[in-house]
Amino acid sequence: MKINAEVHGGNKIAQKLKQIQDRLTAKRRVLVGLPAGSGNYEDGAPLVVIGAVQEFGSANGLIPERSFLRVPLRQNQDNIKKGFRALSGKVARGEITAFQMLDQIGARAAGYCQDAISAGIEPANAPSTIARKGSATPLIDTGTLRQAITHVVED
Predict the structure, then answer these.
(1) Residue 110 burial (CB count, 10 A)
(2) Distance (Å, whole) CA 25 – CA 30
(3) What digits encode the pLDDT tens for the residues 98-151?
(4) Are 47 and 144 in contact (CB under 8 A)?
(5) Side-chain half-sphere of 79: how many Cα atoms within 13 Å?
(6) In whole angstroms, what separates CA 154 from the centre of its chain?
(7) Which stretch of DSSP H or E encloses residue 51?
(8) pTM over the 0.70 mark
(9) Cα 144 to Cα 41: distance, rounded to the nearest angstrom
(10) 41-59 per-position pLDDT tens digit
């Protein structure tokens, strides 16, 4: 017994596989934090400068490190990976674009950072800081820094 088989649409299959590959391997990335141009506090201090001092601590040691970006992202990396895996399948099936996937992941990641600030980041504020702002929660005075945390998808 002899079996004959014909394959039709080979070029269409190759084109579709190429489209899927292109969607999954596009040179894009998502950045989370305080992008340039995030604005200034009312006193004129740039948010990105204040954010960097809070994230890493001041050079003179008077302001301690309070990581509102690196630590929350590291703590939630498993959640971020799960989201990436789930959304990658949607990209492969053409349900969403790679840009949309990164946009959703970036929004989640920025949310983790904002939530960490709301929950309170160690170390505690100094008594003088608590007296000045009337709150013991570090990194929250007006909410400007927390609200400015966002994400950007780059090509």
Answers:
(1) 22
(2) 14
(3) 899 999 999 999 999 999 999 999 998 999 989 998 888 899 988 999 999 999
(4) yes
(5) 14
(6) 12
(7) helix 47-56
(8) yes
(9) 8
(10) 999 999 999 999 999 999 9
Torsion of Cα atoms, 115 then 119 then 121 then 125, to 10° = 130
Nearest residue to 127 via CA among 138, 143, 116 = 138
- Host H or E run for residue 77: helix 77-92
**Residue whose entry in the numeric block shows the structure tokens 């084109």:** 15
Given a contact cutoff of 8 angstroms between Cβ atoms, the answer to whether 28 and 155 are in contact is: yes
Q: How far apart are CA 105 and CA 153, in angstroms?
A: 10
Task: Say which residues have a Cβ less than 8 Å from residue 62's Cβ, sequence separation at least 6.
Answer: none
* Greatest Cα pair distance in the chain: 92
Distance CA 111, CA 149 (A): 8
